[in-house]
Specification:
The structure holds two protein chains of two kinds.
Chain A lengths: L5 E12 L2 E12 L3 E5 L6 H8 L7 E6 L4 H10 L1 E4 L11 H10 L5 H14 L15 H12 L6 E5 L7 H16 L3 E6 L2 H7 L2 E6 L2 E6 L1 H8 L3 E6 L15 E7 L2 E6 L2 H10 L7 E5 L2 H9 L6
Parallel strand pairs in A: 3-7, 3-8, 5-6, 6-7
Antiparallel strand pairs in A: 1-2, 1-4, 8-9, 10-12, 10-13, 11-12
Chain B lengths: L9 H15 L2 H22 L5 E2 L3 E2 H32 L2 H7 L4 H29 L11 H22 L6 H14 L12 H8 L2 H14 L4 H17 L4 H8 L2
Antiparallel strand pairs in B: 1-2
Classes of the chains: A alpha/beta, B mainly alpha.
Amino acid sequence: MCAISSIVYARSLTKRYGAIEAVRGIDFSISAGECYGFLGVNGAGKTSTMKMIYCRIARTSGELGVLGMDPARDASRIKQRLGVVAQENALDPELDVVENLLLYASFFGVTGAAARRRADELLELVAISGKERALVRELSGGMKRRLVIARALVNDPDILVLDEPTTGLDPQARLLVWEKLTRLLERGLTLLLTTHYMEEAARLCNRVAVIDEGRILAEGQPSQLIERFAAQDVLELVDVGGRLPDDERLDGLVLRRERHGETQYLYTADNRVLLHRLAELGFDPPRHVARQATLEDVFLNITGRGLSE
Amino acid sequence: MNALTAFFTPNAWRVFRRNMLAWQKYAWSSVAINIVEPFAYFLALGFGLGAYFSLTGYGSLVQFMAPGFLGLTALNTATFDASWGCYERRVFNGVYESMVTAPVDPLEIAAGEYIWQAFRSVLYGSLFLAVIAGFGLVHSWWALLCPVMLALCGIVFAIPALLVSFVVKTQEHLFYYFSFVATPMVMIGGVFFPLDKFPHWALALAWLTPLYHAVKVFRSLVMGTVTASTGLEALWVIAAIVLLAFVPVRSIRARLAN
């Protein structure tokens, strides 16, 4: 993709902290209106990448363009048009909910009645209306996260950057955050997020980059990645020892095999066909899970380890 | 933008406003703490200890100490909040982290904190001034200029304290600054007793501290003994602000900037 048409792009981007190479030459290009996700475990280089994009840390080498500008030169102008949900909430615990929004808005030059109106709209959008005068410490984890999202939107940004938006939230709170982010996407906002939840990436992202040890190992639409690196279905077999028939006898039904610990993963086009064939061969798996392949499998197959490890 | 022009940016005043909003939630307890403690020392030393003697050439101890305590109040309030308070705001509460994610320059944050310390110093110092006026210890309308000097004191004491808060590894290390810098500065600052009998080297050391000059200004304003040299003492403090303001810039940028 051409750099001009993309809202964020990187070429051979690196970040080094002393001897540690956190980001080792990555390339990506994100278009306006897209939701682009970095999927990886802790320490993969996701946060460093995000911080370079939202001008919090300087890159070591390579090219980086955000909204047609260079973070090394135009940090202030880029920040003016970004919304940032950092990994740490960094809400002001000494201020109440509305004060947090109004103070932050003032830094973008949004003040007075306009700021007040914007704050009301955003609190309604993220469903925290009625808590205007609550101190931040009185909010639940999910509410804090939604307040940070509201805060990131006070300047009506062109891009919303979210570093692990739902880490540490319970499933219900996570669903609510996803719902709000989906609404923002529908309005045409560009979203850039990191996550180690494959479900989050699959649900929200148009495109995902699998990132590990500072490198992008694969990139594409979630469904494409699954097709390419996993298969339609997965049959997980627990503790089968050596009794499992080999690939030849399974008529090529198994597209890929992985083994992690006591679990064998058989990637196949259709679990029912595979199970049927196994039964014909007299193999009745004692404990198994038949499911669709997910980005988790993609990650497992590319990096050799799970996302949740 | 540099360390001085940052004072005149809208963002510096927004940072000031942020501290004001937070402070308003516990203003009364804060006022009480910042007034009661110096006042207790003032009463005990001035009237208790001072009852036993008078200072040759200066009158009563309580009269001598009254203007000195304006400088002491400014030093204490600015030093504590610019170090302990700013450390908390930066490290524990992430207040600055969200500011630098928005288009706020770290120097604007520092300037906002200095303005805030100027405000605190003016507020608590003026309350103390009202108290000593009530005791009949203020003898001149020149004393109405004390708040201006208090504001300058707030800034000049805040600058090194903020720098220290940016370089220490843990909050407890701030006590090194309190014990090795702030407290000795008070002892040689001419707050409690005249420095005429100090050896030359100690006097030279005192001359290097802003408190020494500030206290001289407060004493002239309160006693009505204002001369050209009072203006020079005030200029010393202003010059210190101008020079000191540039010292913490690298540390502040290193901790908060890109």
